[in-house]
Specification:
The complex is a heterodimer of chains A (about 290) and B (about 200). Chain A has about 290 residues and is an alpha/beta fold. Helices cover about 45% and strands about 10% of the residues of chain A. Chain A folds into 2 domains: about 1-120, Glutathione S-transferase Yfyf (Class Pi), Chain A, domain 2, CATH 1.20.1050; about 125-285, Rossmann fold, CATH 3.40.50. Chain A has helices at about 15-30, 45-50, 50-70, 80-95, 95-105, 120-125, 125-135, 170-175, 200-215, 225-235, 235-245, 255-260, 265-270, 280-285, and strands spanning about 1-5, 30-35, 70-75, 115, 140-145, 180, 220-225, 250-255. Chain A has a 4-stranded parallel beta sheet, with helices on both faces. By secondary structure, chain B is mostly helical. Chain B folds into 2 domains: about 5-110, Alpha-helical ferredoxin (Fumarate Reductase Iron-sulfur Protein, Chain B, domain 2); about 115-195, no CATH class. The chains are: A alpha/beta (about 290), B mainly alpha (about 200).
Chain lengths: ~290, ~200
Amino acid sequence: MRYAYFPGCSLHSMETAYDRSVKAVSKHLGIELWEIPDWVCCGASSAHSVGHLVGLAIPAKTLVKAEKEGLDVLAPCAACWQRMVWVNHEVNTSPKMKEKISKAIEEEIKGTSKIFSIIDGLAAVGMEKISHAVKKPLKGLKVASYYGCYYVKPPKVAHIDDPENPQLMDEMMKAIGAEAVDWPFKTECCGTSLIFQDLDTTLAMSKKVIEMAVKSGADVIVTACPVCEMNLDMRMAQINKRFKTSFHIPVVYFTELMAYAMGSTPQEIGLDKGHCGETKSLLAKIS
Amino acid sequence: MSAIVNLSQLHKDHGDFAERVFKMSGQDVRKCYQCGKCSAGCSVHIFNGMDVSPNRVMRMIQLGMEQEVLNTRSIWACVLCSTCTARCPRDIDIPRVMDALRIEAKKRGITQKFKNANVFHDVFMNSIIKYGRVYELGLFIGLKLKQSGNLFADLEMGVPALINAATRLPKFPPKVKNPDEIRKIVENCKRIEGEK
């Protein structure tokens, strides 16, 4: 399997743990990633609020490079993924919009490349194959899979799984030997980039998610979105201060646990220093 | 928002507003029958990030309360999580309506209801127009200088988190071969939308 890889800005900035672990787990599973040369930002979270066309044209510029290569796209960032899914949706439902986007990017967009998130991209390999690749099963580890909103909502456009109770990430966690915690806030919103606009509201939103994962008995929260990761992990001490709570649950990318279970070292994938919250307790549990 | 609404006057002056919103967003807000499911599931609304609940935004559009709805904080506070859309029994994509209203409000220079959101979008767009990708350190500094009220709020993140974040944050802008690509697209889009 070969994908056009669109890492996005976050994975090349602070969230290298995601980039590294996505590459590692892809390697373990025999997935080849061809990084789209000179990809540009997808425009989220602002371009679509500035103009409908510009919000589609910016991600289309990168998408068209994958089309020319004849490859489907793998985009591990939820925002990048959804912006590209919207481009395909519009291109395939509105010939007029297709023409406008093509004009804006000065190239023809066809809508022929499928856009995979890292969740459905990896799940497509099959749970059996994932289990076979595991060298260190994460026995006894209770994992709360946090999908966030963009991968499953709005369901007519973004729908890798059920919008209220998705299972794909849970299944993958089971495939690597961990225990998937059944919890109710899998797709509640963390607040995304509202963190840079209205801190009070966003911290309350993220707190709600962390609190429910802890109440549900999870040892770790896994995410598949750099913004979810930043809001839950980087802001946890701030949340504790504001709400007089004492959460200290590690929040890591699900790909880190997968790569680790398949033999990568914590140093290789950023599981040691790639997060604001401590991961020592997690590493002690799974080593 | 005033407590008394003159419906006849609104209908006379802004009776076509729902139709215009339909053209802008592709969403027919007239279908909304005020069940309130959107507001019940909206985290931003639940945690007081909005001044008007999403279902009331829909109703205001139906009634032609054009000025009033463009002057809400809610249209900017929506994070497009689309929980409302997933649950709407009338199949309305509410975030697309919110986006369309933001674009319209911005066109008319109505940004004062949620200045920090507007500053965020401006600083973000400038960053990607300049570098082709987000330069996070530049973005954070720009936001701190231009937004109001949260200059020192991030110190609450605590020393270990701040040190870890600072270590991971690239100090220099991203380098791409084609930093002008987004600028060109933005200019092209302005031209194309002006052609209509």
